[in-house]
Amino acid sequence: MKNIVFFKDKNNFGKLIILIGILLAMPLLVLPFYPSESKYFFSFFIPSFLSILLGMVLVITLKKERNDLQWLKLLKNSHITVLFTWMYGFVAGAIPFVISRQLPFSKALFEAVSGWTTTGLSVMDVESTPAIFLFHRSFMQFCGGLGFVLVMVMFLQGKQAMNLFSAEGHPDKLMPNLKKTARITSSMFVALLIVGTFSYIVFGMPFFDSLLHAMSALSTGGFSTKADSIGAYNSLGIEVVTIVLMIIGTTNFAVLLLLMRRKFKQLIKISEVRFMFLILAVFTTLVSVLLFYKVYLNLGESFRVAIFNVVSALSTTGFSTVTYNNWPPVGVGLLIILMLIGGGIGSTAGGIKLTRVYIVLRAAHENLIKRISPSRRVSAPFYYRAQGKTSLDHEIVDDTRGFVTFYLVIYVIGTLLLTLSSNSSLVDSMFEFASAFGTVGLSIGVTTSDMNTSTLGILIFGMILGRLEMFIVFIGLYSGVSLAIEKAKKLLSLK
Amino acid sequence: MKNHTKISNTYTVIIGCGRLGASLATELSNSNLDVLIIDRDKSAFRKLSPAYGGLTLIGDALDYKVLEEAQINKATTLIAVTNNDNSNIMVAQICKLNFDVPRVLLRLYDPEIKCIFSDMGIETISPVTLSIDEISKRINPVKRGAKI
């Protein structure tokens, strides 16, 4: 307890780096069960130890967090901290792969980014990868889904914690105290992890695989221990468990809390939940009919394939049961739309987010109504969140439209760049970039172990932008540059 | 650790997100207490510091449903600091009598209305009385500490 008090007012960046160091050491817990892999001890121990050391140095040397009241400074500082923490996490997460010579640095970085951002695109041959690395990958997704700041806030809460928390993209507060919000979120997650693991075991998956799959399904990550992902088991039970876990993972934490408290009446009112089930129903029907006519599977099987892949794409998890090579382009197009829409706001999922799509559609609908009604018509649209009835005012609509516009612009640019660098068809690039940008992890074949560095770079950039919701990256970079200029000016004026 | 558990059991509800309410909420939240703040006007929450880690609730605190949504029955302290004395008194009375909130504080601009609820166990803070006290202390040092 004393240590925690010591850390309280210290620099957040240092604290977060120590946290990353601790998380990197977690895979070592696997070693007692797989003694043959103890040769990999140092590939985890070295980066973990160095991170903790670096964090300590930063905590001691950097200035204390002041209780600054100037909002612009606060905003800049918190965004820089979050951005750099994640960047550090990506590099540190890649180091174990490099030290153990599993992957060269660029691919290791890709794997780490794909892990922390809960994407699940992979360049590794999972069948021959040692267990400790498989655990490392899934554990990265589990923590990446929660977010570094959330994990840190759980243990210690400094004065700037709230800024960091909202900078990392957690829009909801569940409890009247930030620490409790973080604690209840992660305890729900751990509880669900245990339940998920046991349900997998019941349907005949080995324990280790169950744990890993439950971790990546809940965080909507999608790393698997098999090359054919969930399809390798070919078991209906396992698929059903996965679908349920994916839907839970893509649900807003606040909604999950309502579910846990068994307030079903409030639950079914929430616009996002209704919208999600509507989309799932419509797209599952479309895809299964399509598969039935075009790929000639029987009706039951079409439905099974359709619902799994639709949920996997919408929840931005990226587990797959089949290959998409024999799917008609329309089916691929439907999946692209789902990946762009993405999961619930304030969950571990990526994409534009259901609520935003819902708001934009509602706003468009209102606009249409406005055009055909008398000019003096007044309307007061509202929608339901887990917190209750919320009015759909101009501010929300404007923010949402801005986000969606940015998202689509980046999506188009990224897709075109990917087509250029990987020499694949436009549809394939659209699919793959939507998958990376929405942190989904479904692949149509552009992500392979022999793709070139620029392709790797584009996908890495897409994943980072997707997980951190773009604006943090932009504001973080902007603040970093403006701070650097300020420092430079000071130095010049001193001379 | 003892101190810590003691802190986490308190839950403060603040009515009115004006200058006083907002700074109070931020202050309490910064010292890791559970805080919820209610205001009728959504734009009032602008005054909260971005470091505020508690909850906000839009609604009229004179509405029973709003108070129930704020889980007022679990509150250990209620602070009524809207800019209207009568609303403050009414919220304070509702919370004291119907929800049994252990500690109720309210701000009164007009110290003379205090008599209507003097025996209900509600604590009042009046800027006028406080200012009179402080100013007379400063200009008349002989009477220092004397009550007005």
UniProtKB/TrEMBL annotation, chain A:
Coiled coil: none annotated. It is a multi-pass membrane protein. Keywords: Cell membrane, Ion transport, Membrane, Transmembrane, Transmembrane helix, Transport. Pfam families: TrkH. The chain crosses the membrane at residues 12-34, 40-60, 80-99, 138-156, 188-208, 240-261, 273-293, 331-352, 402-420, 427-446, 458-485. It is found in: Cell membrane. The keyword Oxidoreductase does not apply. Belongs to the TrkH potassium transport family. This is Potassium transporter TrkG. It comes from Fusibacter bizertensis.
From TrEMBL, chain B:
Residues 9-129 form the RCK N-terminal domain. Keywords: Ion transport, Potassium, Potassium transport, Transport. The keyword Plastid does not apply. PROSITE patterns: PROKAR_LIPOPROTEIN, RCK_N. The keyword Ligase does not apply. InterPro entries: K_uptake_TrkA, NAD(P)-bd_dom_sf, RCK_N, Trk_Ktr_HKT_K-transport. This is TrkA family potassium uptake protein. It comes from Fusibacter bizertensis.
